[in-house]
Fold this sequence. Notes:
By secondary structure, this protein is of the alpha/beta class. Helix content is about 35%, strand content about 25%.
Amino acid sequence: MTALPDLLARLPGQTILVVGDLMLDHFLIGSVDRISPEAPVPVVQFAREEYRLGGAANVAANLHALGARVEVVGLIGDDAEGGQLKTELARAGMGTTGLVIDPARRTTRKTRVVTTRNQQVARIDYESDGEATGEAATALVEQIARLASDAGAILISDYLKGVITPAVSAAAIAAAKRHGIPVTVDPKVSHSAYYAGATLITPNHHEAEAIAHMRVRHDDQAAVCARRIAEITGCENVLITRGEQGMWLHTPQGDTTLPAEAREVSDVTGAGDTVIATLTLALATGASLENAARLANRAAGIVVGKFGPATVSLDELR
């Protein structure tokens, strides 16, 4: 079994192609010291605002933080938010030539009103979540085919915002097989039929229960659930992220349980992004599924101690 420090040394420089739903996370931050006289809601005294990469863009940011070269395929609108998202990706050193502009849709933006103590007061979503069609859908498939040849792995990040259609998912999986590289999926329940043939699927606890139509309360149930998901989705390897109960990895060779490693939990937002980014990057180096999952488990234990969509660095993992 390869030691994790040796695996860490192989991560930088790997190229990962991320295909998925890009988002811009907008935070309005302020203090609260009274309730509005107009309605039973807190009055937030504005202090500052922040923008962060969200959704598949946060996956890309996690990969970049671990030293990967990243290419991104996704949809943005012909709007200010799309321009900002592209600028933020490029500023971070990620490839943006795979971005497809669809004038008929708006760039996904999630605006969260939060207090200075990191308590969320409200969230407003700006989005167009219909599945990509027409020229935009064709362009997504073309960009996947173009960029896959230089990738060490392909990562599908599905947030149900329209990018991951049957055709796009099939194109990514076919490209991975054509080039002999792994393809991983962070799934959504209603798209379970889209991922057949992927190397690995990483549902969280609630998604796993919904896909398998069963409750999971202990390891024996997790084992049954993972096998069902493999059968239903057509993905041989399944990693169920179970929060405080850690992770359950199912492969045709056997199952492995990984205890949770979080020391402090501040915010689980984006933790799944960190898991699949770390896992995929490790697989791109040729790591085993078990070692890749162990490394991803450690990364998750770090990122849940941070607020909002966040990343984990190589130094933190070391």
